[in-house]
Design brief:
- By secondary structure, the chain is mainly alpha-helical.
- It contains 43 helices and 2 strands.
- A two-stranded antiparallel sheet has the order 1-2.
- Helix 6 packs parallel to helix 8 and helix 32 crosses helix 33.
- The longest helix has 30 residues.
Length: 719
């Protein structure tokens, strides 16, 4: 193309396409994948005079492109040198092509050194870079090192940090001190323990790296919209749901369930019991409704009673239902579909497949796709078959089988082993020689042997799956020094799930001294420790604030026998939640002074739910005509069971009064507070001959526990 220059001389304008210069001649991965990220020079895309300035720009651009090409090749070679294969490098170039322009010496090598120094080596290093290449591009070396150390202090191990970083690519990019830490403190204020928060951060860090104000709003909505109290085990699941769905999307989910027959109350009941159901797709819901309701004839209420049915894969449902049909047609079983579907894989095999191997040998092959080798399924085969979180898929299945054998060898039965593996699947990856045997030896050397050893492991398998052997040994001796005996330390081990990982000298010792500073005797503190050990593993500052609150907020003096019960209430409830509890009682007629009178006498009444309070008020106040002050002065009336105590006993007294069989009519509190044997001796057994139907009716009405008590009495009378 010709154009006149300003001096009238015709010159040629350089029309250079960026792709002509940018397109490298080699066919390397870096050159193919990063074209779109090369900077186009404006001067190269429009016509202009052939001036020295323009030519200089072209030459500079060409030189720059050559350097970038060399840089890309160098970065690609470096990634391969540290162990990434071609497909991984290609994926990185696709998702983060800017990494291919990083300088190896100044940027990549220093960051790789930080990761290796932290503990990411070999396959772990490769996996974290392949899943999260942003670590090498968007985070400075010093910031990367500081954030990794901070995460380790929160999560407790390099392994947990590795998992969290792989699960969320932005975890090390956001401000951990300005975002993550405030969110963790916020969740702690909702009385969520460290272990639950660690699991959330490891598995779903994305929920904790959002704006703290946004997190606060979602936490409030878990209680207000889904109706899940913070004490519920489902609270964090509700938080995940609220973090995943906008208000509009949540309304859509409610409407979706209503379209398939759920009422508003049905959806709320479901959300409280299993909130993650709200995340299921309409297609998934439709297939479950078609199968369970349209095909099998179940009702919505049946699904709500067994919500897990909605979460299982159709493959699991159809395979198990086919087995169930065959067994029912031959009248070999008569179990509910909920029982069949919710059984673990090992239990399903043990109950519904293996017992019929002789009568129906094809059943096992049809269900598992494998032939039955001999009279039983080999442990390794079973370990590979088990799923749904019971046994973790492990390349070394022999390790899982070895763990199962070891647990049985020390005395645990099949049901105990199954329960332990379900609760702590991590145990299957434990090295028997290096981890399990040393911990068992520590427990035995401490004096826990035989049936005691079995009971403590069955009650608290975390002792084997979490923490180091050294920490376990130190905590055992510390507990014995505080509680005074191996027997009490054993009881504490059964209840304290944190004992294998917590540093008791940093948590328990200061709290123990705090309680003693309030004038509490060693004996009372020891009893409290045995009952509520986990509570005293809280941070000492938290315990200190709660102790002050027992006196100042609840008005319970430290000399009172209810002081430690008040402490448990203060530790279990946030300030806001405590205010809500006070307001709840006031809505049902309590005055401020009534609530305080009640709390001083029985602080645990503040743990009562509104539904439970409503039924007691309806009965004692609205039906029987008692005053609120009467209940406030006798708060144990609120804690008794309506079905097992209040209604049966009130019915007995009504019959006795109508027949004029009582010399003196007792107050309702007098006969409600009696033990079961005391009530029988006073108001049932003396009238057994005159009113035999009363005896039978009360025994049937009050349930199995009372029926057993009556049988014991009858047997003693006969003997």
């Amino acid at each position: 193309m010709l154009n006149l220059c300003s001096n009238g001389v015709r010159g040629s304008t350089l029309l250079l396409r960026p792709t002509t210069l940018v397109r490298p001649h080699s066919a390397s991965i870096a050159s193919d994948l990063s074209q779109g990220y090369l900077v186009n020079n404006p001067a190269l895309s429009r016509g202009g005079a052939s001036t020295p300035t323009t030519l200089t720009k072209v030459l500079v651009c060409r030189s720059s492109l050559e350097k970038k090409k060399n840089s890309r090749n160098s970065a690609t070679d470096f990634l391969k040198d540290i162990g990434l294969d071609d497909s991984q490098v290609e994926n990185i170039a696709n998702s983060h092509p800017i990494l291919l322009r990083c300088r190896v010496e100044k940027t990549l090598i220093p960051k790789i050194k930080v990761l290796r120094d932290f503990g990411f080596c070999g396959s772990e290093l490769i996996s974290v870079i392949a899943s999260n290449p942003i670590l090498l591009t968007n985070v400075s070396r010093d910031s990367l090192s500081a954030k990794l150390d901070l995460l380790k202090s929160i999560l407790g191990s390099v392994e947990n940090v590795l998992t969290a970083v792989k699960n969320e690519k932005w975890l090390l990019y956001v401000g951990l001190t300005s975002v993550l830490q405030p969110n963790l403190e916020l969740l702690k204020s909702y009385r969520l323990c460290d272990e639950r928060l660690q699991k959330l951060l490891v598995k779903n860090p994305k929920y904790l790296i959002r704006n703290p104000k946004e997190v606060q709003e979602r936490l409030v909505r878990v209680e207000q919209v889904l109706g899940i109290p913070r004490e519920s085990a489902m609270f964090l699941h509700g938080f995940k749901v609220m973090s995943s769905l906008s208000k509009r999307h949540l309304e859509f989910k409610f409407e979706m369930f209503k379209r398939y027959g759920w009422s508003e109350s049905d959806v709320l009941v479901m959300a409280k019991r299993l909130p993650l159901c709200l995340l299921m797709s309409e297609a998934k819901l439709k297939t479950r409704v078609d199968f369970f309701i349209n095909k099998l004839g179940y009702k919505i209420g049946d699904l709500i009673a067994c919500l897990n049915l909605l979460t299982y894969s159709m493959e699991r449902i159809l395979r198990r239902y086919a087995v169930m049909q065959v067994l029912q047609e031959r009248e070999l079983i008569n179990h509910s579909i909920c029982t069949v579907m919710t059984s673990t894989e090992s239990r399903f095999l043990d109950v519904y497949v293996l017992p019929f191997k002789d009568e129906l040998p094809e059943l096992y092959e049809a269900y598992t796709g494998k032939k039955l080798v001999d009279s039983s399924v080999q442990k390794a085969s079973m370990a590979s078959d088990l799923s749904e979180g019971c046994l973790v898929n492990n390349p070394a299945l022999s390790s899982g089988a070895a763990t199962i054998d070891f647990l049985k060898d020390i005395g645990l039965d099949d049901s105990q082993v199954e329960k332990i593996i379900k609760l702590r699947p991590k145990l299957l990856r434990s090295d028997v020689e290096k981890t399990l045997i040393p911990k068992i030896r520590v427990l035995e050397d401490f004096g826990i042997r035989g049936s005691e050893l079995i009971s403590v492991i069955a009650a608290n398998p975390s002792l084997l799956s979490h923490g180091s052997t050294k920490n376990l040994l130190a905590n055992l001796h510390f507990l014995k020094s505080i509680l005074g005996s191996v027997e009490d330390a054993l009881n504490a081990l059964k209840k304290g799930k944190w004992l294998s990982t917590a540093n008791l000298t940093e948590r328990l010792q200061p709290n123990f001294e705090l309680l003693k500073s309030y004038g509490l005797s060693d004996e009372r503190v020891q009893k409290f420790l045995l009952r509520d050990l986990n509570i005293l593993c809280c941070h000492p500052k938290w315990v200190q604030e709660s102790l002050v609150g027992v006196e100042q907020v609840l008005g319970i003096p430290r000399e009172s026998g209810m002081f430690l019960h008040g402490l448990k209430v203060m530790i279990s409830h946030s300030k806001k939640n405590l205010e809500l509890k006070f307001e709840m009682f006031k809505r049902y007629g309590w005055s401020e002074s009534d609530v305080l009178v009640m709390v001083k006498r029985l602080p645990n009444c503040l743990n009562i739910s509104e539904a439970k309070l409503k039924t007691r008020v309806d009965f004692f106040v609205n039906k029987l005509g008692y005053e609120i002050g009467y209940l406030a002065a006798r708060p144990s009336l609120l804690s008794f069971s309506m079905e097992d105590r209040i209604l049966p006993r009130h019915g007995v007294l009504q019959v006795l009064q109508e027949r004029n069989l009582l010399r003196k009519i007792p107050s309702i509190y007098t006969y409600m507070k009696l033990s079961e044997s005391g009530f029988l001796d006073a108001y049932v057994l003396p009238f057994k001959d005159k009113l035999p139907e009363l005896y039978e009716a009360y025994a049937g009405f009050a349930g199995e526990q009372l029926a057993r008590q009556l049988r014991i009495i009858e047997e003693s009378e006969l003997s």
